[in-house]
Structure formats: C-alpha cells, structure tokens
Amino acid sequence: MSLSPIQAVLALTVVVALGFVWYYGGRGRWRSSLEARLVYGVPWGTVVTVAIVVSFYLLVQGGVRHWSRPLALPFVSWSYLYPTGLLTAGIAHASPEHLISNVIGTLTLAPIAEYAWGHYPPSRGSSDESTGIVGSGAGEGWLARPAVRALVVFPGVLLVTAFATALFSLGPGLGFSGVVFAIAGFAAVNHPISTVVAIVTSRALRVLYVAFTQPVARATIDPGAPGPPDWAGIGFQVHALGFLIGVLLGVAALHHGRRRPTIERVFFGTLLFGLAQALWLIAWSGEGDVYFLYRGVGVVLVLLLTMLIAVAVAGSDRPLPRPLSPLPWTPTRRQFAVGWLVLMTLVLMASLAAVATAGGPLLLTVGVLLLSYVLLALPALPPVLPDRWLSGPISRRQSAIVGVIVVTVLVAMPSVLFGLVAVGGDAVPGSGGVEAGDYTVTYEENATSGHTPTIDLGDDEVFASQQSGVIVVSDDREIWTVGVHEEVLEHEGDATVEVGGIGWSETVHAERTGWEVLGNGTAYVVDLEANGETTRSFESEPVRAATRIDGHTIHVVPATDGFRLRVSRDGSRIGEAAIPNADETTRAGEVRFTTREGDAGVRVFATIDETTVQIAEREEYSTGDDSNRIDLV
Predict the structure, then answer these.
(1) How far apart are alpha carbons 497 and 433 in whole angstroms?
(2) If you placed Cys at 170, which of 71, 237, 388, 569 could pair as Cys (CB 3.0 to 4.6 Å)?
(3) In the beta sheet, which residues pair with residue 559?
(4) The dihedral sign for the CA sequence 72, 77, 82, 85
(5) What does the pLDDT look like over 101-119, one tens digit per residue?
C-alpha cells in the first residue's frame, strides 16, 4: 500500500521531532543512563516480546492474509479442558485495534519495567538508593549473563504472566492486556513517576497511530449496530489480576535490589494509574439488555488497594503494635497464631463433616471451604515459621505484602468456577447447522448455552443463559459461543465467522433476509454459506399483519423458496401465494397482492375491491463492520 502525501509528511515530521529532542536534549546523558542498565541502551526484552505477540497475530492468526479479520475463536481460553486456548489466549488478539492498543501499552510501559529489572545483575554491596541504578558487578551463573536476562528471562516472565492471566480469567479471555497491566504494576512500584508519564505517552502514540492510518476521517449519521456499552466487554478482572501480579513481582525486585521508593510517590503513581486506566471498572450484566457499572465501589476499592500497595512497597519496618499489651498477660504473636490456626483447622474439619453428611455439591463446597481456610490462615503463618525463614517480628510492611497476596488470590480464585466447564456432544441447538472442520455453525433464537460445569454446583441454572444469533460450537475445543449476535445481524444483514485452528481456517458467511410485517414484528430467514454450499439455518415463525382487509387475516410465512403470503378468514385458510417481485401482482383467494419499489423501500400491499392496505416492507440493512469490540487497555 502506497503512502499518501499526508502520511509521508506526518512520518517525516515525527522523525525530525524525535531527532530534534535527541540532539538538543542531552543525547549523551540519555545514552549513558540507558546503557548503565540495558545492553546498548536498548530494551531487548520488550522488543522480543512485542515481536512474539505481533508474529502470532500475523502468522498463526492469519493477520497477514486478513489483517482486519484474524482467526480468534480457537485461541480463547474457553475451558481448563482446552489447553490450546489456555496457552495462546494471553498473546492472541481479536482485531487490529485490540493488537495495536496492547502493543502501544507494552512499548510505553515495558521499557520502564525492563530498566528496573536491568540487563546487568546487581553488584554485591553496591546500590544507589536515589536512582536505583546498580553496577554490572561480578555475578555468577546463567542469570548473571546480560543476554540471558534481556532475551530470555524478561520475555519469559511476561509470557508466563500471559498464561497465568489466561488461566485465571473470569470467563473466556483473549488478549495481552493482562500482561500490560502486570507490566504497569511492576513499573508503578519501581518508577511511579515514569509510569504516569508512560500513560500519557501511550495516549499520544495512539493519536499518532490513528493520524497515520486514518489521516482523514469520514463519518455519517449512522447509529451503528446495537450492542452493549464499551465498558461491558473489558476484562476488568484480568486487568486487576495482572496489575497485582506485577506489584508483587515489583516488590520482590525492590527487595532484591535493596531499593525502596518514597511512599508518597508509590501512592500517587499507583492511584493515578488506577484511575486513568480504569482499574476501578467493575461491570456486570443483569437480565435482558441491562448492564451495571459499579464505578463508585470501584474507585473506593482502588483507593484502599493503593494504600495497601504503598505500605507493602515503602511502608515502615517497625513491628506491628501489640494492642493487648496493657493486660496482665498477653499471648505472644506465635502463641496467638498457633491458637488461630488450631481454631481454623477445627472449624474446617467440622464444616467438612457437616457437608459430607448433608450432601449437595460436595466438590464445590469443599473447594470453597479450603480456599477460605487458606485465606484466613495465611496471615497467621509468618509468626509460626522458623526463625531462619523470617528474621525478627512481623512489620507493617510485611503484613501489607501478605494483604496484597490475599487480595491477589481473591481476585484470581472465582475464575476457577468458569474454567471448569465443558461442551457436550449434543450442544448444537436447532437442526440447521453447517460443518466446518470440527466446528458446527448454526443460527438459533433463545438457545441455552452449551457450557455445563464439570462439577456438581447444585444449581444447573448457573450457566443456562439464553443466547440468540450465529452460534459456534466445537465439543473438541469446548467452544460454545455466539459468533454474531442477533441484533448485529439484524442491523448489518450479513456477517462472517472465522473458524479454524493452528494451520487452517474456514469462513462461514451468514445472511439474513426478512420482511417487517406491519404492526407485528419481522418474518425472516438466515442462510449460512460454507465450503461453497448454502444451507437454510433458520426460519422464523409466520407473522400476522396487524391490518385486516374485509375480514381477511394475512400472515407473512418464511419458506424454503422465499416468503409467502397466507390468507385466512374466520380461522380457515383461504389461499397462499409467494410474495411477488417488484412491480408485479399475484392473488391468493379474494386478495390481490402487489409489490411496489420506491424511495421508501420495497413494500407489499393487499387489495380487495377498492380497499388497499400495506402488509409488509422488506428489511433494509446498513453496511458496516461486523468485527467484535473487545478488551482494550
């Protein structure tokens, strides 16, 4: 694709501006500062990671052939029983916008995290408390090699984090955004101010990208396809989980490098990031088309979490106060911890015994009880550990770190329930499906989700949601999802669904045709085309026109060869005829039907003697993009 003059000028201007700042802004100082931490001053780990993510999109997901329509379905983390999705969901993306958003976030935030990690191992006994820059030292072992730290360890940690966020995603997940938030968490506790600057930089880079790819935008007054609000599709739980993982890794890096930033920098850096990047977002869907955004609750949680993180990173090492010290006798922390663990163990054993005798969903209940036991027992473990494992009494900072760990576990664990699902062999709704490899694609209204829990929950309605649209099913891959929602197909008229796997893909085309019946809904059909063959997947029920003519009732009836007009009177069918072509006439019983095409569309009229009424109007569709909006950072 050739560059337009505007794109060429924009690219040249950006290069000149960067060169100007590099030349007059102290290029020698920048180079020496970067080379002290990075090999040749380049964040090689960031480069390798971005190359892996982009290559996966281009080569595995078919972005080279279809840049705007990648293959995404087989790379989603549908279930714990589908390892391919778990391994790939963290680096796969569903659209160019999704990919570019996460790549920009990585390019702006990962160099800060990589700078804090450093390509050179810390020197023994040397550290600059103000800047955190440490010498190259004489480390030993493979981890001390700059090339290994840059090209293997840093990208490897990010890829492992991608797997972790896919594993503990609350429902099916896709995208690198969980890792981007983990990078941000690591950067925020190591270099808070730089992280805030990086957020502004990422917004600026997005503007430059859009300006380059779309230097001139053209828009019309088109409301677009109906759909949920943008925030309803954001993986807020994965973002929070990734951020907390990054914070814990950042705390470990600070401890290893013997550095500790000031508490106010950590507080404001974390708070500004959390508010700017919607870490407060908590959303849920209600019945029907209602979605809830708990913004107020989310902001309160971000403020509380920010204080906890600030103490965990830069809090005091003074021991926790002893509130019972004024009493004549008080137990030591170890005695209190042992007593607490004994009490929790007795409660757990009694609860397990009660569950075993009462019956019900045993596995789920036992899992919840064990998780509760671990979370309640975790804060009591440090005082009972051997002295060689933990020197000195428990400090405020250590207790805050334990608190962050507990919050991380609480955020991650609910996802296990949504990962323990499977798709049965009879999960395909209706009878109008088409086969494409190991997939079945069909169209159905009010179909019950085919995902069923692999454990007894005691309530079969947990996953029994009703869905309408183009449904994609693969029991081999534990996939049951709506590829195109009913409202989108009704608006666009046609859509495509990409199915496949590693090394192959097929396209299924869905097309809707319908007639809006006067005063009483729409009669429509949906055809699916796959492998060059067209299959009638769905026909709606006949729809009766609200208008009667001379006592005659008229229905618009979907049929295999098109649509028909059925005439009845006093409950008895009189006649039936196909809807005539434009400017043609047909007859069913005493009723004469005429189709007229004009600026207002194609309409069908019924006539008896001198009376003429409108019966139906052909559905018209908008030309739009049927790509899905998903999880952007």
Answers:
(1) 13
(2) 237
(3) 562
(4) positive
(5) 999 999 999 999 999 999 9
